[in-house]
Write a structure and sequence with these properties.
By secondary structure, the chain is mainly α. The chain has one domain (6-129). The protein is 73% helix and 0% strand. It has helices at residues 6-21, 24-32, 35-46, 63-70, 74-84, 90-93, 95-129. The longest helix is centred in the last third of the chain and has 35 residues, at 95-129.
């Protein structure tokens, strides 16, 4: 069984969110590194089901799928729990909660990676236009 890569999936979801849901003005400010825009976009994504699942409490909308994502990611879940909610009972909350917690935990790091890739790709395209 292949271990689910949370970082690569969250990063891809972030890129898709930025491409499909942000208007050109917001995208421009994001690429320029406007700190307020960056924080606003991260805050917006935090509650999006197609990025973290935090809006509804589930990204997968399927308990078994959430369990499958968690296989091999126990260390990552431990880190997320310690950082975000050290006193929560993960067994009581269930796999979908755990899956969302990891996605929320990784959001900032994955956002920075995704944004760096987008900026790099944007600069490459602009250089090619000259």
């Amino acid at each position: 069984m292949k271990i689910y890569s949370y970082p690569s999936h969250v990063k891809q979801d972030i890129k898709e969110f930025i491409e499909k849901r942000l208007d050109s003005g917001t995208f421009g400010l994001l690429v320029q590194g406007d700190e307020d825009t960056i924080e606003d976009v991260k805050d917006l994504m935090f509650d999006q089901d197609d990025v973290t699942g935090n809006g509804s409490g589930s990204y997968t909308f399927n308990t078994l799928k959430a369990e499958e994502c968690l296989v091999g990611n126990w260390d990552l879940l431990r880190e997320a729990k310690e950082e975000l909610q050290p006193n929560v009972d993960l067994i009581e909350k269930g796999p979908e909660f755990c899956d969302v917690m990891i996605r929320c935990y990784l959001l900032d790091w994955c956002f920075n990676k995704a944004l760096a890739e987008i900026v790099n790709n944007t600069e490459t395209v602009q250089k090619g236009d000259n």
